[in-house]
Amino acid sequence: MTVGSPGDPDRSESFGEGLLGGLLDRAHELPPHQVGPVLADTVARLGGRDPQILLQDYGQQRLVPLPGEGLAGGEPQAIDDSEAGRCFLTSRPVELVLPDGVRVLLPLLDGGDQAGVLAVTLDTVDDDDRRLLRRITGLIADMLQTKNSHTDLFFRTRRSEPMSVAAEIQWSLLPPLSMVTPRVTIAGVLEPAYDVAGDSFDYALNGDTFHLAMIDAMGHGLDAATMATVTIGAYRHARRISIELSEIYLFMDRAVAEQFAPDHFVTAQMMRLDTNTGRLQWVNAGHPAPMLIRGHRVVGRLDSPTTLPVGFGGAQPQVSEVTLEPGDRVLCFTDGLIEEHESGQEEFGEEQLIDWVNQLERADREVRAVARDLSHTLKRARGDATSDDATLVLVEWRG
After folding, report:
1. pTM assigned to the model
2. Across the beta sheet with 291-294, what order do the strands follow?
3. How many other CB atoms sit within 10 Å of the CB of residue 196?
4. What are 270-284's pLDDT values in tens digits?
5. Would you say the C-alpha torsion 274, 275, 280, 283 has a positive or negative sign?
6. Which domain holds residue 116?
7. How many helices (H) and strands (E) does the chain have?
8. Tens of pLDDT along 93-110?
9. Domain containing 190 — which CATH number?
10. Running DSSP on this structure, what letter comes out for residue 132?
């Protein structure tokens, strides 16, 4: 045995390293259905019991227990009316004092997106427990993300209603619904979650440049989902070969025109944000104008010259530009959000949308919580009518 000099770092394994290392050592070959048993074994070594993984359902209404050996079951919990929901919406741990110990709830965060909540009970909780639980939760969130494409288990848990084939296609196409970084945050919501077809969005953060596209393919059902798939695929390809923003439209337009009948089209909006300076550029192809939110109130629309919807062979669009201020938010939405109306009544309209945005925007609310509440509130205000897809995306430049 070789003994290091007094100045050598201590490379022996501590309890905490052993606990987390056990998870890491098994993670790469762990079957998805074994995430629960491994979590149960890990928290048991910490003195914990009754571990539970709660996943957000696709409608963003409930947190549903993941089934599995070693995991506590239970009924789904309403996000708007439960302690687990409070943890989920605030992205902060919650501790509940129980007769037999402390129930600790922690947000399952992955790159700013949030899969759900992890819960575990301990006799007592100190700062060492909190640190280890936070790191265990981070590893479990990463496992759920990396193994999601290998199984239907997580999808089935999150699906609380029958889902149409078109919606299955759209959900498989989407990026994570939210992303949080030091300079830019995004959150999106799709309605109706289990029957969405033509609406979609996509984004990417490449260095200091944030890219966003939002589309609305005509019609409903598989035809609309197929058009949306082709359009988003063309957008991603054009974005990745780094062509100009206005040329991305031409690329998408050609792809749709070559694959579908002449009367088929997709409205679209593409944006590019310099996350260093707040310089926002965008092009519009028949899409509703985004709204600029400053000081937590709508201060105006980002009106711009528009070209024909994708697929109609419109002229190369003009690039519009605005410089955002730190804390500014931009709300993008599809026409289904404002054109819905109850039988014999007027459309919901932009003015009602603005009123609700101003009511729900508050200084202490994260983008993800505002986007979710706004979508659900608007759906209720429209009388729960969803004859068309109604999608919104909220982006914040943090400066």
Report:
1. 0.88
2. 178-180, 184-191, 390-397, 329-333, 291-294, 297-301
3. 29
4. 999 999 999 999 999
5. positive
6. 15-157
7. 11, 17
8. 999 999 999 999 999 987
9. 3.60.40.10
10. H
